[in-house]
Amino acid sequence: MHFATLGPSGSNHALVLSHYLEARGLGDSRVSLIDDFTEAFAALVDGHYNYLLQVSAHFSHADCVGRFMHRAWPVDTFIAPSRSLALVARRDVASPRNVLRQPATRYYTDLSDWQEIDAATTVDALTRLRNGEADAAIVADEALDEFADELSCLRRLGPALDVWVLYAPRPLADGNPLILPNNPALTRHFAASREVERY
Description:
It is a single chain. The chain has helices at about 10-25, 35-45, 60-65, 120-130, 145, 185-199; strands at about 1-5, 30-35, 50-55, 75-80, 85-90, 100, 115-120, 135-140, 150-160, 160-170. By secondary structure, the protein is an alpha/beta fold. The strands form two sheets. Strands 2-1-3-10-4 form a five-stranded mixed sheet, sandwiched between helices. The protein has a five-stranded mixed sheet with strand order 7-6-8-5-9, with helices on one face. The longest helix is centred in the last third of the chain and has 15 residues, at about 185-199.
């Protein structure tokens, strides 16, 4: 099977897809990392991939859902955390004033005092920060260890918990949604909620 998702290799999409394939026993699948979801959805419906994974928080999600309605079909969803993130600054900048951030991360912390600069991914934000294109960036916090001599931590943000959607060029059997009535995690969650309501 051939899966596609947003690259590059260090991106959250690539990380979550690798975990998904491992959990589903599909570790031997072919994976293509793309850089544009609109083009990737078009390639999916043209048969170039079997599946395409996209996080619902991605800025292009609603547009892709509408543009490819009845051609790209959601066939699985799940909840997964992103890499743990941090707001970091270059050590050679005394007073950081601008920040690179992927649009989905713009509200993860208060950036009202910053000039915001779009980055395609958190990986792109890190690369451009290290190239001197900005004073600060929201990146995976592992960059603080990897580039400790270059970067300082302004604020740890932790991981985002997002909904991920897997698309295919055909719907589930008979066009029916997949409903899992015996999901143990949901059963425990709803049971706990009922206990809270009693008090």
